[in-house]
Amino acid sequence: MNDAVGLTKLFFLLLVTLPFPHIISIAARSTAAPFNVTAATFTESYSPLFSKFNIHTSPDDKSVHLHLNRLSGSGIISSDYYSHGFFSASVKMPPHHTAGIVVAFYTSNVDTFERNHDELDIEFLGNVKGKPWRFQTNAYGNGSVSRGREERYRLWFDPTANSHRYSILWTPQNIIFYVDTIPIREIRRCAAMRGDYPSKPMSVYATIWDASSWATNGGREKVDYQYEPFVAEFTDLVLNGCIVDPSDQVPSSDCADATAELMSKEYAALSPMGRRSMKWFREKYMYYSYCYDVVRYPVPPPECVIVESEKEMFRSTGRLREKMKFGPHHRHSRGSGRRRRRGVVAAV
């Protein structure tokens, strides 16, 4: 019996013996086995993007520390472009007071397609010490930045205590964002999305930077440099996709087999257990979704699947109703802010 099959049977056994949150906790601690992926070294997979002096690799080259200080943030970029793939890293967030700091793991091709780029984001939005961490996911296709597809969530664990795996699956048919082994969001391609579905080759990025103007509590909480340097540790670097030249006008037929293999993986589709895990996460920890923001989108974008149990959580602005607050440390910010990053403007 292989590890993945054994773990699946264990989950179903736990399903009938333990409350669901306990199952989620156990699954989150078993991050590598179900994905069955191979990590690469930093030198094999990435190169400095900016502020090389703030990028520090481990002696074995298997992890990289990205620093933010008064001089600059820092970032890395994959050495290649990929036509679809599974991209993953285990990340340990900087401790203490990290308000105003964004740590991001994302795919993009903005450097090649400046006016019509594609992008898939996981962004951590800084943290006031003692309060739950918040993060967001987003997707752009063909420069569709005016039609942001962001969702925002809270984490159920302390991301500064240990490393946790964050993953992006991108296939011609669907996109899945994972936290550890838990799927938190799926976007399924439909014909009505047209060019809004990311389709051009992308690189993979990891960055840390000062976003005091918008990231935490609408920009009211700024970076406090008395705690510098702020260090985000990235390990278990996984780049599993078909390497391509982004300048090719015709998609390479060489990627057909690689894409078929990618889509055959267990993590490329949601099992019944995966859907239950995602439902648990979204109903408990999602606090904004563009799909339920009828003020912004009177008609939901075509890929939105309206789930009644989610819909009843939100106001017409896509934000939680007051009665759905998570606790005394989970406060909603009133109003909205704007932010600009890499030429991209998105509502928060």
Outline the structure in words.
With 348 residues, the protein is an alpha+beta fold. The model is unreliable at 3-8, 14-18, 25-33 and 323-348 (pLDDT under 50). The strands form three sheets. The chain has a nine-stranded antiparallel β-sheet. The protein has six helices and 18 strands.
Helices and strands in order:
Elements: H1 3-15, H2 20-28, H3 42-45, E1 46-50, E2 55-57, E3 63-68, E4 74-78, E5 81-92, E6 101-108, E7 119-124, E8 134-140, E9 151-154, E10 164-170, E11 174-179, E12 182-188, E13 203-210, E14 230-244, H4 255-263, H5 272-285, E15 286-293, H6 308-311, E16 317-319, E17 338-341, E18 344-347
Antiparallel strand pairs: 1-4, 2-3, 3-14, 4-13, 5-10, 5-14, 6-7, 6-13, 7-8, 8-9, 9-15, 10-11, 11-12, 15-16, 17-18
Helix share bin? 10-25%
Biggest sheet, in brief? 9 strands, antiparallel
Please identify the oligomeric state: single chain
Compute the gyration radius: what is it?
19 Å
Low-confidence stretches: 3-8, 14-18, 25-33, 323-348
Give the overall form.
globular
Mean pLDDT: 85
Helical run tally? 6
Distance between the termini: 47 Å
Give the structural class: alpha+beta
Total number of β-strand segments?
A: 18
Trace the largest sheet across and list its strands. 1-4-13-6-7-8-9-15-16
Fraction in beta strands: 25-35%
